[in-house]
Amino acid sequence: MRDTKKEIVWLAVAAGLLLSTILGLYNIAFGLIGAIIFIILIIYYTKNTSFDEIKIDKAIDEIYSDLDQINQERMYEMPIAMAIVDSEGIIYWYNQSFGKAFKNEKEGLFKKSIVDELEFNLSEAIKEEDFIFNYGERDYGVVTNAFSDSVHSFELLHFFDITEQSKERKLYRKNSPLFCYIVNDNYDEIIEKIPSHKRSAILGKIDLKLNEWAKQLGSVIIEYESDRYLMIFERGKICELEKENFKILDEVREIENDEKIPITLSIGIGISETILGIVESQDLSHSALDIALARGGDQAVVRRDEKMSFYGGKTEASEKRTKVKARVKAYGLKELIKEADHVLLMGHSNPDMDCLGSAVGLLGACKSLGKEGKIIIKEINYSIKSLFDYLLENEVYQDAFITPKEAESYGTKNTLLIVVDTQNVNYLEMPALIDQIPKIVVIDHHRRSGKTINNTLLSYTEAYASSTCELVTELLQYFDEKNHVNQVEANALMAGICMDTKMFTLKTGVRTFEAASYLRRKGADTIISKILLQDDLNTYTAKSDAVKNAKIYFDNVAISMFENNTDYGKVIAAQAADELLNIKGIIASFIILKNDEGLSISARSMGEVNVQLILEKLGGGGHLAIAGAQFPGEKDLQVGIELLLEAINKYKKENGA
Q1: Strand-pair category, 228-234 with 177-184
Q2: What is the spatial distance between Cα 289 and Cα 270, in angstroms, rounded to a whole number?
Q3: Which of 22, 23, 221, 577 is surrounded by the fewest CB atoms within 10 Å?
Q4: Is 267 buried (19+), middle (13-18) or exposed (0-12) by CB count in 10 A?
Q5: What is the pLDDT of residues 121-158, one digit of tens each?
Q6: What residues does 628 pair with on adjacent strands?
């Protein structure tokens, strides 16, 4: 409205100026009189207009001042706790709700640090959208608003009391359902070996144990297949189960039968920190069961998103006698090789004889199918040097090896990557290749642990097997081609089996000897395997020193510490651990090696002690009788032995030893 009036006045002024100019053209006296009147009007208007605007501006300022006063009073009296702090967290203002909730009654909080006084993480509150602050027994959702003057920056903090909502949320999470998948590991053996009149009694005992367990938990259990159960219980019960280390595993294992078949269970439970739907929840639990089975069974796996907790696993995986699985996997692998443009074979970093031998065996399969195969090796270490030199004596293998850098050019959509002797992404010779190549096959005999390779087209992982070479040999037997394994490849596979079984003395089953018999028919010579596994004098001397340094703990556990910066230090540690088991009364051995990379532990057992469970507490893994762990960057051997002894004590406490 004020703007419209201004426009009318200025139009009148413009008209007066035009009229004065016209009068001046006809009569100078009239023009001067008009000009004087025009100037007087301008002066009068300007003075009056300025005065009016001043009055209006003053009135507006008064209105805003009144509003500010009202806002300040309302902010101070608001039921929501509020405070203004600077970038350092110094409190410049707070309202009465904030004072009631947080104020130090003796001194107050004005000009004090909210970070120090309340242990409030200001940077996280600014960064996170859903920041929750716990103070005493109350929970607060914090919302921040930034503002500044010409010099300082401030944050207006709003504290919304969400204690009741937090209690409801915790109660909901505690009572939310969890899916628990259970598998009878030895169902097939029970059906096959136990007479029908006794079979029902054994299965009935298992069923009774599980139903009693479910009743104690207040859960629902359903047998959805002859050897599989689904149990649903409240999330709050998981702590109780973990505290008792899933005692149901021990109770079922104690069920006796005349045929001495071990009765074991595999259990998988998935828990997520985020709220999942029914399908996602059961998928998470089912993946936990898959991990338990891949690790050999007789254990429970609790998967919290990507973090795994393992319970049980006290017995070695029993050897499966059916060969149907091997035949199916062999057929699938054969078709994948045929369809691929290139085949890359990769093992773990610092490969050993089993890793290289299994890769060489699969290389022969690729050749027999008319496909080019390449083995990725970063560098030749002491463990494989003798086998590598043996292979290079034959010109067929002189172009079979490539470096990780050279492997980049093979990373096409139709390249097949076969990973052998490991499932852990972090242990690969070239971890980045997993993301570049979509077609992946995994063949391994280790129990699953750590960050595993997902989205594989085919996975053949059997923890019962003595070695990856044994698994590869089984697969090759079901390839139709007659000449897919020559004598050199047979010797490489045999050397890998001999190394992992210590010349058929450890972790050796019926299938191991069947694989060795097949390789013997293909021309493998155990004398060549023995030669490939021989040590030079320096290695043998260093191994003897490691054995000599051993000390006995707990009456039957040998632990030795030694330092070796050579390329074959880890080989010496592994061999020394084997040698310590030859000492009478020793049931488990540990070698702690210090080298330029840090500390590493090699562990061996006669079977009575599960060294895998011990070293898993230190971030390692392996098998019941063979395991390892690493501490990159750690240089103090004393730290290594303290951590190891602590892990052994925990293991003994958990297992009542």
Answers
A1: antiparallel
A2: 9
A3: 22
A4: buried
A5: 888 888 888 898 988 888 899 999 888 766 778 888 99
A6: 602, 621
pLDDT tens, position by position, 538-582: 888 888 988 998 999 999 999 999 888 877 788 888 889 988 998
Cβ atoms of 342 and 415 closer than 8 Å:
yes
pTM: 0.59
Q: Which residue has the tokens 């002189």?
A: 398
Q: Which two tokens stand for residue 153?
A: 């920056």
The residues with which 447 forms a beta bridge, in sequence order, are none
- pLDDT tens for residues 258-312? 777 788 899 999 998 877 888 888 889 988 888 888 777 888 999 888 788 888 8
Give the separation between CA 155 and CA 145, rounded to whole angstroms. Answer: 6
DSSP assignment of 514-583, as one string?
HHHHHHHHTT--HHHHHHHT---HHHHHHHHHHHHT-EEETTTEEEEEEE--STTHHHHHHHHHHHHTTS
Let me know: does 401 contact 374? Beta carbons within 8 Å. yes
**How far is Cα 578 from Cα 52, in angstroms, rounded to an integer?**
102
Residue 125 identity (one-letter amino acid)? A
Q: What is the mean pLDDT of residues 409-437?
A: 88
CA distances from 472 to 364, 366, 418, 651 (A): 11, 13, 11, 34
| HEC sequence for 452-467 | ECCCCCEEEECCCCCC
* Rounded Cα distance, 266 and 249, in Å: 8
d(CA 156, CA 139): 19
Q: What is the pLDDT of residues 496-525, one digit of tens each?
A: 999 888 888 777 888 899 999 999 999 999
Number of Cβ within 10 Å of residue 217's Cβ equals 19
Which three-class secondary structure state does DSSP give residue 177? strand
Neighbour count for residue 523 (Cβ, 10 Å): 15
Find the Cα–Cα–Cα–Cα dihedral 462, 466, 471, 472, rounded to 10°: 140
Give φ, ψ of 563 to 5 degrees.
Answer: -115, 130
Which DSSP string do the residues of 281-327 spell out, in sequence order?
HHHHHHHHHHHHHHTTSSEEEEEETTEEEEEE--SPPPPP---HHHH
Greatest pairwise CA separation for the chain in angstroms:
140
Residue type present at position 599: L
Give the residue from 651, 628, 238 showing the smallest Cα distance to 450: 628
CA-nearest of 448, 445, 433, 426 to 630 is: 426
In this structure, what DSSP letter does residue 352 have? -
d(CA 160, CA 132): 9
What residues contact 24, with CB distance under 8 A and at least 6 apart? 30, 31, 32, 34, 35
> Three-class SS of residue 105?
coil
Residue linked to tokens 């086998």: 387
Could you tell me the two tokens for 598? 């840090």
